């Protein structure tokens, strides 16, 4: 997808303000990209209009191409639409604060109930009571009880033969009398939206008087997302959305669809089956997923701000001459850290989401950047200039001095050699683009 998008925008290489033609030419492709990401049709339509309004006539920043400018605007509108703050769960009410979970069967309600309860217990030291109102699926109440024991959160004792509303009342009373801070209601779902489900949810809502009503939805939900979110919001009224299975290969379109039609914040995302696989919502991550591209422009902007121009010139000169020593590598690593570490950089580059996972799997991470800098700073000036003189005894000393292992030092040296060779090959062209060119 990112290749496709870069392709689309390559045509737009003139400078100046974006013309209606520039923008129109790309809108058809943006629309296609959104549909491919599983954004609902009607949401795509309004989104494209918003982008068009903002883009036509917009000034193209000097240092970027009109194509990059359009990318930035698409990205910005996406972030605005998704909501630009992580909105945590509100406990701002008289205890016991009631939280009701709604959604279709298999969306992840029960799992998410336990995950949230664990989070509230761990982070807010809340005393939480969970109650399953799912009397349809055999063993649904037992499932919540098992998860409760796993995360160390109480569940309402199971009484056979009660209706969801009766259980809700019993839970509310128990929470009140026993001094719980939070009471969570896990409800039953259906495979699809129907009137009995909505009626049951409305009834439970009346009994439970929830402060938060969270719609739990699978990130894989495609064109159904709009109908799902609309129905629950209009009929029951939701206060937020939890998107589950973000770890699967969902393309993130559901987030944009549901947020657009309800205006309700996406509060949390589920990233796995484990009880701690629950994270705050970061719009930029979803935006990257939807468009399969990073915020190239902001990388360019931030790099320009952060990278010390003089330092970059010095490195560029050395690169031209094919000289790139370990001091230079250390400077580069420092600049990477300033840019927000590997995650920060990768997140902003197109198509780098996967690459980041691969790097992580290979043990490349921000901790490694720190350790590499520690290794280099444990070397003498002479060693940094001439890494070739590093033999076993020197290596042992450096590893001990930096609290690392000789293998890690060897890896660093190999990486440095590869970079130096690459720079010799790139010669002048690479030198001009400096640090950024290499990272991209
Ligand atoms: P419910 O019917 O809405 O209560 O759904 P459940 O909570 O029972 O979840 C259905 C299945 O989805 C279970 O096997 C969960 O482990 C799994 N599940 C829930 N959330 C996530 C998630 O964020 N990622 C993954 N990979 N699986 C999840
Ligand atoms: Mg359930």
From TrEMBL:
Subunit annotation: Part of the signal recognition particle protein translocation system, which is composed of SRP and FtsY. SRP is a ribonucleoprotein composed of Ffh and a 4.5S RNA molecule.
Topology class, membrane: Peripheral membrane protein
Predominant cellular place of this UniProt entry's protein: membrane
Gene name, Swiss-Prot/TrEMBL: ffh
EC number(s) given by UniProt: 3.6.5.4
Reaction(s) the record says it catalyses: GTP + H2O = GDP + phosphate + H(+)
Domain of life assignment: Bacteria
Cellular localisation: Cell inner membrane; Cytoplasm
GO biological process: SRP-dependent cotranslational protein targeting to membrane
Keyword Nuclease: no
Description of its domains: Composed of three domains: the N-terminal N domain, which is responsible for interactions with the ribosome, the central G domain, which binds GTP, and the C-terminal M domain, which binds the RNA and the signal sequence of the RNC.
Domain SRP54-type proteins GTP-binding: 265-278
Name of the protein this chain belongs to: Signal recognition particle protein
GO molecular function: 7S RNA binding; GTP binding; GTPase activity
Role, per record: Involved in targeting and insertion of nascent membrane proteins into the cytoplasmic membrane. Binds to the hydrophobic signal sequence of the ribosome-nascent chain (RNC) as it emerges from the ribosomes. The SRP-RNC complex is then targeted to the cytoplasmic membrane where it interacts with the SRP receptor FtsY. Interaction with FtsY leads to the transfer of the RNC complex to the Sec translocase for insertion into the membrane, the hydrolysis of GTP by both Ffh and FtsY, and the dissociation of the SRP-FtsY complex into the individual components.
Residues reported in the UniProt entry to bind GTP: 103-110, 186-190, 244-247
């Amino acid at each position: 997808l990112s290749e496709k998008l870069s392709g689309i925008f390559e045509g737009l290489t003139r400078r100046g303000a974006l013309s209606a033609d520039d923008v129109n030419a790309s809108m058809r492709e943006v629309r296609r990209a959104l549909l491919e990401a599983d954004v609902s049709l009607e949401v795509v339509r309004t989104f494209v209009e918003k982008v068009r309004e903002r883009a036509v006539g917009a000034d193209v920043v000097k240092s970027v191409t009109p194509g990059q400018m359009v990318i930035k605007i698409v990205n910005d509108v996406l972030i605005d639409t998704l909501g630009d703050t992580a909105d945590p769960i509100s406990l701002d009410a008289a205890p016991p604060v009631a939280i009701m979970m709604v959604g279709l069967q298999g969306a992840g309600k029960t799992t998410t109930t336990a995950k949230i309860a664990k989070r509230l217990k761990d982070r807010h030291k809340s005393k939480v009571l969970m109650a399953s109102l799912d009397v349809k699926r055999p063993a649904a109440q037992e499932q919540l009880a098992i998860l409760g024991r796993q995360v160390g959160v109480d569940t309402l004792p199971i009484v056979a033969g009660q209706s969801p509303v009766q259980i809700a009342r019993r839970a509310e009373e128990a929470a009140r009398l026993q001094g719980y801070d939070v009471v969570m209601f896990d409800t039953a779902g259906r495979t699809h939206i129907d009137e009995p489900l909505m009626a049951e949810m409305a009834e439970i809502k009346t009994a439970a008087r929830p402060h938060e009503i969270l719609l739990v939805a699978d990130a894989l939900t495609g064109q159904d997302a709009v109908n799902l979110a609309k129905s629950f919001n209009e009929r029951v009224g939701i206060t937020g959305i939890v998107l589950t299975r973000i770890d699967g290969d969902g393309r993130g379109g559901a987030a944009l669809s549901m947020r657009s039609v309800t205006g309700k914040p996406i509060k949390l995302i589920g990233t796995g089956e484990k009880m701690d696989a629950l994270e705050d919502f970061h719009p930029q991550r979803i935006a990257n997923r939807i468009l399969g591209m990073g915020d190239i422009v902001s990388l360019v902007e931030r790099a320009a701000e952060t990278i010390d121009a003089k330092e970059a010139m010095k490195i560029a000169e050395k690169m031209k001459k094919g000289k790139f020593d370990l001091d230079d590598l250390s400077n580069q690593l420092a600049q990477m850290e300033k840019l927000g570490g590997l995650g920060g950089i990768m997140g902003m580059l197109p198509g780098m989401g996967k690459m980041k996972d691969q790097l992580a799997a290979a043990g490349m991470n921000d901790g490694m950047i720190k350790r590499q800098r520690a290794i280099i700073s444990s070397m003498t000036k002479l060693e940094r200039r001439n890494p070739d003189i590093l033999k076993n005894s020197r290596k042992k000393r450096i590893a001990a001095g930096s609290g690392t292992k000789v293998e890690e030092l060897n890896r660093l040296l190999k990486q440095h050699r590869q970079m130096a060779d690459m720079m010799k090959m790139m010669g002048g062209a690479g030198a001009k683009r400096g640090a950024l060119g290499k990272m991209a």
